From TrEMBL:
Protein keywords: Heme, Iron, Metal-binding, Monooxygenase, Oxidoreductase
Example GO molecular function: monooxygenase activity
Protein name: Cytochrome P450 71A26
Family, similarity comment: Belongs to the cytochrome P450 family.
The organism's taxonomic lineage, starting at the top: Eukaryota, Viridiplantae, Streptophyta, Embryophyta, Tracheophyta
Cofactor dependence: heme
SUPFAM superfamilies, per database record: Cytochrome P450
Positions bound to heme: C180
InterPro entries in the record: Cyt_P450 (IPR001128), Cyt_P450_CS (IPR017972), Cyt_P450_E_grp-I (IPR002401), Cyt_P450_sf (IPR036396)
Keyword Lyase belongs to the record: no
Length: 238
């Protein structure tokens, strides 16, 4: 019945009680796992969405172009489905540009070098913990040009660079064996949600908005949030 279903916490507690599971898990581990789910799976997702809306509201021409693309693909329908996304090239460019400038996790998951490596005259001994600065890589002028700090989704329309860990110019989800395991789910979820937001609503900033409220100042932490909350006004699209 409905009451017999176990949720995520129930499963963790059952593993704790089951001594034959092959490994042990205590209450501290359970709390850590749940915290990781919230931080890695929830906090990063809404943070990316907030940065996307920030940049689109700061660049009305980009927002208009995105709305035109989404509404053309979904003409006559009230919502966007996953199947529609493959025809939305500019949507993907907007998301990729936001990930470049505002990776929710500025530092990737630590890696451990398995052998001695010399990288540009730097010796990295085996067993060294290495942390990659994805935020700095995304703003490297030698890679992205003199306008590397500017939000310009068009740079991705004819580019083969992708954020899925194969191109080291852009690794917001990490790369290699410790790449984010939920990258595919996170990408699709973000695409569908953002597409529906711009399809069903028209967006604008409050008249009394200040540069502080609409700017791109960042807070510090393991996840990069806006320094100040974003306030936007939505109205149903006509």
């Amino acid at each position: 019945g409905e009451g017999d279903r176990n949720d995520f916490v129930d499963v963790l507690l059952s593993i704790q009680r089951d001594k034959s599971a092959g490994f042990e898990i205590n209450r501290i581990s359970i709390k850590a796992i749940i915290l990781n789910v919230f931080v890695a799976g929830t906090d990063t997702s809404y943070t990316l969405m907030e940065w996307e809306m920030t940049e689109l509201l700061r660049h009305p021409k980009c927002l208009k172009r995105l709305q035109e693309e989404v509404r053309t693909v979904c003409k006559g329908r009230s919502s966007v489905s996953e199947d529609d996304i493959q025809d939305m090239k500019y949507l993907k460019a907007v998301i990729q540009e936001t990930l470049r400038l505002h990776p929710p996790l500025p530092l990737t998951v630590p890696h451990l070098s398995t052998q001695d490596v010399v990288l540009r005259d730097y010796r990295i001994p085996a067993g060294t913990q290495v942390v990659i600065n994805a935020w700095a890589i995304g703003r490297e002028a030698a890679t992205w040009g003199p306008d590397a700090d500017e939000f310009r989704p068009e740079r991705h329309l004819d580019s083969s660079v992708d954020f899925r860990g194969q191109d080291f110019e852009l690794i917001p989800f990490g790369a290699g064996r410790r790449i984010c395991p939920a990258i595919s789910f996170a990408a699709v979820l973000n695409e569908v949600v953002l597409a529906n937001l711009v399809h069903r609503f028209d967006w604008r900033l409050p008249v009394e908005s200040t540069e502080e409220q609409t700017g791109v100042a960042e807070s510090t932490g393991s996840v990069i949030h806006r320094m100040f909350p974003l306030y936007a006004i939505a109205s149903f699209a006509t």
